[in-house]
Amino acid sequence: MSCSLFEFCRLQEFKTVRHFLFRNEKSEPVEEKNQTEYKHLMRTSKGGIGLKISFALQVTDDAGGQGEPWLQDCVVSLSPCADLLVVAREQKAAFLSAKWRTDDSGREEMTLGVSWTGTLSTEEGGSACVCIFTSCLNTFFRSSTGRPDWTCVVVGFTSGYVRFYTELLHEDPVLRLKCRTYEIPRVCEDYIHIQSQSDSLILYSAAMVTIDGFSLFQSLRACRNQAARGTAASLLTLLLLGIMTLCVFDQMKNASILGGFNASVKGSPPAMSQYVTVGSGPYTGFYYAIEGSSQPLLSHVAMAVASKLTSALFSAASGWLGWNKNKNEEEAPQKQKPKVEPATPLSIRFGLPDSRRHGESICLSPCNTLAGVTDDFGRVTLLDLARGIAIRMWKGYRDAQLGWLQVPEERSERDFSPSASLPRRHALFLVIYAPRRGILEVWAMQQGPRVGAFTVGKHCRLLYAGYRLMGVNSVTSQGWQLHTQQVCLLDPITGVLRTVNIPFHLALSDKKSERAKDMHLVKKLTTLLRSRDIDVSVFFQALESLLSNKNTPVSCLVNITRALDDTLKRQEPEEVDAELLQLCSSQLKLLQLYTDIQQLHSAADVEETDSLEGIEEELSRVAPTLQRYAQFTPRHSVSFAQDSPDSPLPAQAFLSQLECTEDEEVKVIRRSETEWNQLGNFLFWSCLCGKSPLHKVCYTLQQAGISPQQLLSLLLSVWLHREKELLQKPEENVRNLHRLLVALSNMKGAVEESWDPQSISPWWQQVRTTCVQSHNAAAALLAALVAHRAAKASITSRADSKFQSEWEAVSLELEQWVVCVRQLEDVLVLQTLLLVPPPPGATGGATVQCSIKTLLEGGTGGIADSVSKWVFRQDISPERLKEILQKRENKELLLAVCQRFPHSLSPDFLFAHCCWEYVVQWNKDPEEGRYLCWSVEHLKMVSSPHIQQGVCTMMWSTFIAKRLSAATFLMEKVGKAPKDRLCRRDVGMGDKAMTSFLGCCVQLLNILMEADSAVEEVSAPELSIEEAWSGAEGPASIAELALEQRGVHYPLVQHHCLLASLLHAAMTFSVKVKPFSLFDSKGKNAFFRDLTTIQLMPSGDMDPGLVSVRQEVNPDILRRHLVCELYSQGLDLRAEEVMLEVEDKDVLGSQLLVLTGQRLSYSLLHSQNQTQAAMELLARLPPTLCTWLKAMDPRELRCPLIPLPQTSRLVGRLIEILPENHAQYSLALHLLEAVEVLTTED
């Protein structure tokens, strides 16, 4: 049981109320007759019955031009007994009283009809109605109907009047009216005791007035019989919690806080009234009024009311007796302003300060401990009034309306237990209506979940009085059983009043809630069973619920269904519901079928198997491939026991998948793939394993009326689904499959009697279609072999019966089977290769699952594409793949696949697809530069220049050109090799990956230029495909797409290759360069154009400015610099070769003399392995030479550690180069002597 909305009343003529409240008052003045006596307003009903309805859809009502939620602009009040509804706007009001009427079906229902409409205020200047509440009053003598005696309407006006037809209490505008009535006290755990009493609370802008409810009731009862006319009108907020008494601790705490250390504490805690207000500054405030202070009493109010009633009666009697007939003769006495009692100042004790939040409304719970507050932020806050704190907040409820529901615990066994004297428990729920979302929600208190939500429309109004019967106290409430509506929802569009019904168990914990829910259901079922008139729909619902319950035994289902069926058959034919009888008979039939199949599977008699001569040869031929396939088949992962295919099928699942038709046949309903496989396992798995008499099973299924086509689909489903178990004993399982297939083929309706063997049989075509679509290659091949043999035997028997010939029958059906078996064998070998696990550390990826259907839909390149993905998963390098294809490396599986697909897996085909697969993987992860390098290497392996050129063109336009353009513009922008961060931002890869990428670009463009040069010398290759796979339909292969590409413009490719080489060199050597600055305008415009188009290219002539700059540079200087750099690197032989081209030998000799001194200085002074001979030589050298050697810096040498023979040879060259009259010739001789001494001593 859950929350529900009940309609208990409907509003009649509600559109009339709307037109009256919003019409133009000038065109239709209010007549004097509307000021009727109050007794005509107070028409009460004598009770009502709630009727359960469905939710009404929200309909926009445009009558009267009011499309807006007009009810939100009105003041609405409903009496607690729902017998009077007041709707007011400004000075107008409409009263709707309860009435009973009989609908078309003869059922009585309560309605609210318009009993009075008119203007409430007749004061000078007028005053608007801001708040209304209607209170049911009761005398000490209860009425015989159990209803309240009469209902009072209390109205607050902007002028400050509050009319019970009484007097002025304060001069400010009335903001809101509140009422509290007596509540029967219950045991409460709160430490603060709050007395429950009746009070009326009036909120003004700067004051509030409280009126004791019992005194007010006495005054109103005294005036009830008088013809009191009054004016009423409109509506802000606060709460009165009643008189409370603090405990001693709280009394001492408050005295210490308010009075300080020396505060005195009274002997008994004072009684005080607690008020809670919401608004701004503070957001929520708590006020306390100490009892005994000057508080306004009602004695003056009663005197004023009596005086006013006297004046009213005197005026009425004057009219009757003929006094004052001419009113114009005397001026009416000026109205005296009523006397207002002075207000008692009340200071705030504490509150919840929130400067930005403004409270809009507050709603007190019936137990006076909690309150709900709404604000302008769209929040609903739950306050604990005893502690003065906020304990919960809901978001997203702008303009929310609140109400409370207090649900008592239902009477149960607890009422008769020893603890029955304890008070009944009550559950508290908060009802929130969000008009902007059009939803009504129910929340359990205090931290409970949402227990109900209803879509009710956006124009409704939540009516929560917050009070019950006025005039009731602890004495008069004994035994009072008056039913009042706590929360009502008014829908102005449909005119429906609804109330919320909440079961008590929704407030309990989960464990207790389930038990309480079961108790409710048991009670409801008991009541239903005891009633004599039970609707047929109840039987339907009960039987369907029973049949869908997984815990009900099969025997119980059979007995209950049979009992119901027998009961229906014993009734009169005209009284029996045909649908219910049909349901019982069909379910009995299905239950009998389920029981028979179970008994056959548990039978001990097993039929003998026959031999299959033709299939045994086929099995021995494919046995090695089957073993390897079973070896690589992935193992099953961990699963639950109930998900295992060996788990028994419940009767409820069996019944849910079968249904009986009107022709007394059984139809299988295909839902999910899992349920379909479970049903197939239940019917045929024991037969496939040889544990059940399969002919009896097939006969039972045929007698049940299941079509052979559906049985065939179930059989093939379980055969393909349980491939791993079948491969453990393939010979035995194949025999059982053959017998089952033959038994199903012999059923009536399987193979048509008029079938011509020269045409395609729908029966065998169903088997082929299932095998073609299956990804379980081994099971599909075995099923095809069995079906081929069975079809061949059937065709042969039909041919023998017709022709009596020894010739072998040839038909289109057998040709289809030959092609299908060939394709399945190819798929089995290919799938075995694809199942080979990748080596450890490889990239891996998901295993490609293939079937005949997927390969045919993959087009002519589907097979090569699958193998290229496998090559990527295996991380096979291009060189190794070439060796495998050339049979230099033993890779048996790959060679077997290539032998079965000689055309689809030719080397050029396979290398082209591998090239494309690697570049696709590189595009997904550009940081893996190895993928792009291997893609280029695979492209080099392609022998056909036509395919090479086309693949290069596609790679360039699809993957390369955009990234190369980004790299070029980035380097042009920064003027040097960019950093890693910039490369990742603009090119999408790091600096190292970008360097590798540019190198691959150079190789790719070189391959393209070589292929373009060789295209004219070699003819284009002719592509073909295997005959069995000629029906492939789908995308073209990479090789076919490559051959369709247009030729490229060689100079443009060369132009891009030059750019790529420049960028690669700049990234490799970190050179500062702006690439575009090295090209003229034509060269810049030609970049990144389509390589197949002809562009204006640079002329090739050298820039004159560059030529003049180069002419200014002496090439002999460059040669001398190169010689010195080579000697500095220790490359003496290459330096001697370049030295021959140097013209100025004198300058070169001086440069080499310094370099020789650096070498000798390193050997004598800076080497860590200085010998004794070297030290002695340094001492014998001339002082000039020693000083010169010490001045040399060997750090300028790129390779200082040079063998002494090379240095001696260099000094010899110096002597030859320098003339004898050279200034440094003598220094060269000293160096020659020193080097010779060192060489001799070594």
From TrEMBL:
InterPro entries: Rab3GAP2, RAB3GAP2_C, RAB3GAP_N. GO terms for cellular component: cytoplasm. One of its GO terms (molecular function) is GTPase activator activity. Keywords: Cytoplasm, GTPase activation. It is found in: Cytoplasm. Residues 70-232, 240-463 form the Rab3-GAP regulatory subunit N-terminal domain. The keyword Chaperone does not apply. The keyword Plastid does not apply. It comes from the Eukaryota. Residues 891-1112 form the Rab3GAP regulatory subunit C-terminal domain. Pfam families: RAB3GAP2_C (PF14656), RAB3GAP2_N (PF14655). Belongs to the Rab3-GAP regulatory subunit family. This is RAB3 GTPase activating protein subunit 2 (non-catalytic).
